[in-house]
Each structure stands twice: as C-alpha cells, then as structure tokens.
UniProtKB/TrEMBL annotation:
PROSITE patterns: PROTEIN_KINASE_ATP (PS00107), PROTEIN_KINASE_DOM (PS50011). PANTHER family: CAMK FAMILY PROTEIN KINASE, NIMA-RELATED KINASE. The keyword Kinase applies. Keywords: ATP-binding, Kinase, Nucleotide-binding, Serine/threonine-protein kinase, Transferase. Residues 19-284 form the Protein kinase domain. It comes from Bursaphelenchus xylophilus (Pinewood nematode worm). It catalyses: L-seryl-[protein] + ATP = O-phospho-L-seryl-[protein] + ADP + H(+); L-threonyl-[protein] + ATP = O-phospho-L-threonyl-[protein] + ADP + H(+). This is non-specific serine/threonine protein kinase. GO terms for molecular function: ATP binding; protein serine/threonine kinase activity. Its EC number is 2.7.11.1. ATP binds at K49. It is an enzyme of class 2 (transferase).
Amino acid sequence: MYSSFTMPIDPWPQQMNDYKKGEEVGSGNFATVYRGSLASDPSKKCALKVIKLSDIDEKSRALQQQELGFLRDLAHKNIVQAYTSFFVDLKTYVLVMEDMGDQDLEAYVRHELLSEYRLIPEYRIWRYLTQIADALTFVHSKNVLHRDLKTSNILKSGSLIKVGDFGLSKRVKPGGKYTERCGTPFYLAPERMGKKAYGFPSDVWSLGCIFYEMCTGVSPYFGERSNEYSLRTKIVHSDCPPISEDCYSFFVEDLIASMLQKDPAYRPDAAFVAAYARKIDNYYRTKFPDLPDI
C-alpha cells in the first residue's frame, strides 16, 4: 500500500542537461515544479523544483537551499523523497525529487467538493489524516518544524499521501520556539499571527485546518481572503464554523475542535492525532473491508 512511486537511482545526475523537463505541475512565490525524467531513460521519472534565487533575499535563499538536507534526513513513507540538487547557474537552483503524479490534496478536495459537489467519504478522510499525522509525528521527532503545512503541499497518488515542500522548515532544539512570521495566512495558528513564540503545536493547528478543509472544501477562515487584518483578527479571536454532524461523525468535529484550540498548550500533539485517526481508520477497515482504497 505504501510503496514508493519512483525507484531511487544512485547517483542522480547533477546537471540540467541530464534531465528532460516536462509540463509545469505547480508554482509558488520563488519556485516552479515540473514533471521530469532522465534524458537518457525517460522511464526514470522525477519532479524538478526550479528555484529562481534572483527573486528572493539571502535569508529566503538559504531556506530554499536547506530543503534538500531536511528531505534527506526525513526518510519516511509519507514524506516526499529528495534525490539530489544542483545549481544551473548563480541564479537558478534545482531540487530533484520523486514524482508523485498529477494531484495535490488541494486539487483533489476542490474537485470533489467544489466541482463535483460531493462530500469526501469520512473513512477516506481518516485514512488521509492518518498518513499526514504520521509524517508530522516523524518530522517533529527529528526536531523539525514544518511551518507551511497546507493542502497544496500534500501530494496524493491513489490512496498514498505524502507531505512535501520543506522550504520554510526549521530545525529546532527540543522545546525550542520561533517568532519569525512566515507561511500561508489561512493555515497560521493564532500565536503565529503576531510576534509570539511558536513551536510544534502551530503545525498541529495547520493540520487541523487541512482536516477541516477535507470536510468542507475550504480552510476554516477562508471567507476573509481579501482582508488580512480581518483574517488575523478572526483567527485569534473567533471560532470557525462547526462541521455539520449531518455530514460527518462527532469524532470529526471533536478532533478538529481540539486541534484548533486557540491556546497551543491545549492542542494534542501530532502523535495523538495520528493514533486517534488510525483507530477510526482501523475501525472502517475492519467493519467495511470492501470500501475502495483510493
């Protein structure tokens, strides 16, 4: 069930002309991701994250270049594998990663809920949440803070889910915290909206936002898209709309509510979320063994 989709090749080439760059599959502020393959063997697939260093400051440049180191240290079945990296020139840096196919979780959720107007079955949500929480538990065990968890950074191929994009991640000392503000506003914990110190519980909040989005199609505070001040105020002071028990079980709302606690001290850790989700996932697997595993 959890096999890799790209067989590792050792060593991976470190020159751009050794790769064939295909279609664009995603882009962000500083980087564009393309589907790729080895020029000498098109059956050897990969993803090429091309980072334009000229578009970012020195601090952001260092963060982007450290991503390979994080990914190499975070070998896990639910984390995107990194193979190698290299400079094309002084302004362009390329990270070679495994190819996870066409879809991220954001695209999947939007297709199911906003295009097809159908809810994602609850058993499937628990299955996906278990994998993301497993990955986050492992990341935190390595004293790494992700800092940019969101549905567009979760890759999906069939039933397999993998966490990617560690470009904003930080390695912290046990119990350590940060005050730097970064990441995507809709997924930021209340303590990250100002200059308060934050740590691993802020990643759990972001995971709670992902959980909520899988159920509703939007992040908890999506309605404040055009007004950052209003968004910040609502995240800090207001509760998000509850999940309807007509659509999902009490257990969904219960876990989301705990993950979106305003006070980080009252949020569960990633290991608890993984155990909670796995228990319900196992119930579905045992009670309904014929449910499609997609």
